[in-house]
Each structure stands twice: as C-alpha cells, then as structure tokens.
Amino acid sequence: MNVKPLGNRVLVRTIEEEERRTPGGIVLPESVKEEKAVRGEVVALGTAEKFDVKEGDKVLISAYAGTEIRIGEAKHLLVKTTDVLGIIEE
After folding, report:
1. Domain annotation covers residue 66
2. Closest C-alpha to 45, from 6, 86, 13
C-alpha cells in the first residue's frame, strides 16, 4: 500500500523507543512511561508547495499529533507540518 499525503501533511515512519529502565535496572511498563515527543523519519511529503523538512529527515513530532496508520508491519503517522517540532541532526 502506498500513501501520498495531501496539502501540508507529511507521512512519518515512527522510530520505536528503547525499553525504559530505572537506574537500578527495573524495566518500566508501557503504562508508566511518560508521554513525550515521538521520533520518526519522513517518508513522503504532501502536495503543498513548500516544506521545512525533506524525505529522509529524522524528526520530533508532538506526542498526540496525527493519525496512526500501518503500512506493512511498520507504524506510520500522518501529521500536519505544524506538528513537526524539529529535525534531529546526528
């Protein structure tokens, strides 16, 4: 399945976070983890004329932004460009 975002939206493949552990080595369950920005990689751009991101950029997205979809086995988010908080430079 291919998805082409419309307007000022981008399709982002989410990057799963590592397991969270306390300093003592205890693994925290999903329900205890704090909500924070989601990391992802831009897969496709919408039909708007100008974007601040490009395909392949690693980005941070607001915690509750966008619509989650599955393409194959991977989780993706379809978000507006205003929900992209920043580009991760490594």
Report:
1. yes
2. 6
CATH number, domain at 71?
2.30.33.40
The pLDDT of residue 17 is 64
Number of domains in the chain: 1
* Selection from 8, 31, 26 nearest residue 82 by Cα: 8
* CB contact at 8 A, 52 and 81: yes
Q: From 11, 7, 62, select the one nearest 38 (Cα to Cα).
A: 62
What is the H or E stretch that residue 14 is in?
Answer: strand 9-14
Confidence of residue 63 (pLDDT cuts 50, 70, 90): confident
For the entire predicted model, the pTM comes to: 0.79
Average pLDDT value for residue range 11-37: 69
Give the range of the structural domain holding residue 52, as residue numbers without chain letter: 1-15+36-90
Query: Average pLDDT for residues 75-87, to the nearest whole number?
Result: 94
The reply to whether 81 falls in a domain is: yes
